Amino acid sequence: MSKKMRQDQGQQEISLLSVTRRQFLKQMGIVGGGIFVYFNVGNLDAWSLTKREGFLNAKIPTDFNAFLRVGTDGKISCFTGKIEMGQGAITSLPQMLAEELDVSYDAVNLVMGDTDLCPWDVGTFGSLSIRHFGIVLREAASEAKGVLKELAGDILKQPAIDLGTRDGFVYVKATPAQKVSYAQLTQGKIIEKHLDTPPLKPHTEYAIMGKSMLHQDARDKVTGKAKYAGDIRLPGMLYAAILRPPAHGAELKNLDLSGAKQMEDVLVIEDGDLIAVLHPFPDKAKKALAKIKAEYTTPETGLDHDTIFDHLQAVAPVGKTTSSAGDLETGRGMAAHSLEETYLNSYVAHAPMEPHTAVASFENGKCTVWASTQTPFSTRDRIAAVLNLKPEMVRMITPFVGGGFGGKGEPGNQAVEAARLAKIVGKPVQVAWSREEEFFYDTFRPAAIVKIKSGIDAGGKIVYWDNTVYFAGEGGSAPIYDIPHSRTVIRGEWRQNDPGSHPFAVGPWRAPANNTNTYAQELQIHMLAAKAGMDPLAFRLHNLKDQRMIGVLEAAAKQFGWGSTKSADGRGYGISCGIDTGTYVAHMAEVEVDKNTGKIKVKRVVCAQDMGFVVNPQGAKIQMEGCITMGLGYALAEEIHFKNGKIFDLNFDSYQLPRFSWLPEIETVLVDNKDLPPQGGGEPAIVGMGAVLACAVFDATGAKVLQLPMTSERVKKALATI
Amino acid sequence: MPESIRFTLNAKPVTITAEGDRNLLSVLRTDLGLTGPKFGCGEGICGSCTILLNNEPVRSCQMKVKDVEGASIVTIEGLAKDGALHPLQNAFIAHDALQCGYCTPGMILTAHGFLSHTPNPTREETIAAMEDNLCRCGAHKRIVEAIQDAAKTMKGGQAS
């Protein structure tokens, strides 16, 4: 996109902002002054603008969408639409700000996810918080530092070039005792600056970035003080229980509300498709809901968790070629061995421990909603649209979010329901989905099919790679190996909810597309290595040119001790390589397979990651451990079973999350790459988990498990076909 | 019919008037305004709602309020003494044994009950004791390490 086009677009976008800078200041009641630096993260090329706009159906403001304030008390506030859901941005973003502004880490306060106080933000997903938002946050801090130096120059009678900054003070370099605090400088002033890409510190000067920090929110979380949406209680608040259909696509035929209406203190609401009972106590609302008699007709689609794969292939759009090299026909002619396989991946749930929850309240016509959401701004806009309000008449406040993993973005239905009900009853309303509602209305990771045709020459070089991906999406689908003749075709995206494709909503699930694509590619690679008669590590290195990939693979191999022992009977070693959100990641794992039962026990997982400069190494390792542990689930057990729109897995009795006893030994390695700016951290280490375990099972038994999750039944079936 | 139900909550006597078959988790969170015990699954599977009932961890979402008449309840809010955190709370902080934090109160109280019977646990014993508490973020490794560490601290006499 040209600069001019961006500017034109910017003109339209600014008018979409519901509040101006002046209004922000007024809303915060800030009269004491300070330095305000406005900045935006809208024009970053690394994240395609069109994709974002297509996803959220929203324009991205080019004016500003965050700002920081250097306060008169010396405290630094950053107002950002990002939210905290366990990923640790609440800890690492202040590190970045404190580093660049030269203040102590403790002086920084982050105000997150409040649509009245924080400028517009796209949402918290895609591992964007550090790698995109963090960069401009640092630039804003650097800008603020420049303003402070200018102000100090007048007082200290020195040109800015002779001044230094340290720990909240500007000092004279030659005589450091001569200094003035940021608080003194900002006294009684309001200075507004727009970001003008000032210089950033080189990493050799970092004192706070790159240091491991404990989670800033840990104390509140271990004492029960941390508030989540369900912990918001307002005077007179009612709890809602909402009538739900038994299946997706079901239609209400008969309704008898009399049983609920007879109950004391129960309000029964019928508002179009929203039928709810409300009571001051949630357990009583639930009892009232049970008194409603409702009959539905359920469509006979014939679709279930087994037939879905044929269905998806039949209805897949023509698709697009997203990467290609050379000529496949030529490649096929060079091949000494060929391998064609089809891989399947199942629908999985996000299953955060906190179900979708929201509290809504109206005061003087303005609606305030506290919600567990990854996208406060687009949820605000949706509520405004549904209630026919101007966006500024809706305020979203995002407390701590109890896990998201991509499942708490669009469409924010629980927040819309709470707002609708609060408007109708004229009292604050809490909507807290039950676990069954959470599963039923989840936007599952889409079921997907990957077909790979590939071949190697007599020297063990991969000569062609023909990959067609159905409904997983593009992420992680381009070959990471050096292959002369290749093509990748994407048929259906992960966010695609075309009528007639999936029988329910699908959406982003931690590292969208990439878990499926990496599983298929890396298992294919492992099996090609076997065809070549080569060690799977040597085979990968033989076919890799990308130095970052080679770096993480060798780091993983060193930590794992690859090749030092031969696997015993029933034991096997796996490898996976992957790239996600700018980060390179390699896994190695050891599994034990019980050939009689088909049960897999994961003994050990090593993960090496090159994520550029690491802001909070401990935080990064925690995310890697979380990815590895969560990844055991989709690799081994997690799968949504359904038929005719009815979801069979509605709680943790049948839907198995990874448990303590599944825990392998986990070792994480951060590969040093300080010269590269920080890359994604919340998702990369999960993309290889299906792959590394499937490869290890193949190594242990020779069984090709071509569908995730690798349940005992699937492993036994695969063993039987050897 | 509403009845008067008395029990001790975080070392303070409370009396509430409620139907005896009301759900205990709901009563704790609404009538009594607590935020520590969390709703996770409603079926006693996930452990987010865990409280200590007479020093034993129980799933409050599976209990009726009349079941706690005369009993002593401790929730995560009542675990610190005079502003000093319990060794388990300190260990969870020191080991960064949490991410989103939603399961954390239940994890700590389950571990509390376990360590009261097994003050010197092996790693395997800790894993077995925590098996039925679910965490989606994948903090399991650090939770185990935090509990093992807290056990050592508590043996040193710093425990409550």
Low-pLDDT segments, ≥5 res of chain B: none
> Which range does the strand content of chain A fall in?
15-25%
Helical residue percent band of chain B:
25-40%
Q: State the helicity of chain A in percent bands.
A: 25-40%
**Cross-sheet strand order for the largest sheet of chain A:** 11-12-9-19-16-17-18
Average pLDDT confidence of chain A is 90
Structural class of chain A: alpha+beta
Q: Keyphrases for this structure?
A:
heterodimer, A: 722 residues, alpha+beta, Aldehyde Oxidoreductase, domain 4, 3 domains, seven-stranded mixed sheet, six-stranded mixed sheet, 20 helices, disordered N terminus, B: 160 residues, Ubiquitin-like (UB roll), DNA polymerase, domain 1, five-stranded mixed sheet, 5 helices, 17% strand
3D architecture notes:
The complex is a heterodimer of chains A (722) and B (160). By secondary structure, chain A is of the alpha+beta class. Chain A has 3 domains: 3-209, Aldehyde Oxidoreductase, domain 4 (2-Layer Sandwich), CATH 3.30.365.10; 229-298 and 356-432, Aldehyde Oxidoreductase, domain 4 (2-Layer Sandwich); 308-347 and 444-720, Aldehyde Oxidoreductase, domain 4. Chain A is 31% helix and 23% strand. In chain A, the strands form 7 sheets. Chain A has a 7-stranded mixed beta sheet with strand order 11-12-9-19-16-17-18. In chain A, strands 14-22-21-20-15-29 form a 6-stranded mixed beta sheet, sandwiched between helices. Chain A has a 5-stranded mixed beta sheet with strand order 4-3-2-1-8. In chain A, a hairpin with a 2-residue loop joins strand 26 and strand 27 (646-647). The longest helix of chain A has 29 residues, at 128-156. With 160 residues, chain B is an alpha+beta fold. Chain B folds into 2 domains: 2-78, Ubiquitin-like (UB roll) (Roll), CATH 3.10.20; 87-158, [2Fe-2S]-binding domain (DNA polymerase, domain 1, Orthogonal Bundle), CATH 1.10.150. Chain B contains 5 helices and 5 strands, in the order E-E-H-E-E-E-H-H-H-H. Chain B has helices spanning 24-31, 87-94, 104-117, 123-130, 140-158; strands at 2-9, 12-19, 50-53, 56-59, 72-74. Chain B has a 5-stranded mixed beta sheet, covered by helices on one side. In chain B, 55% of the residues are buried. The model of chain B has no long low-confidence stretch (mean pLDDT 96). The interface between A and B is large, with 60 and 58 residues.
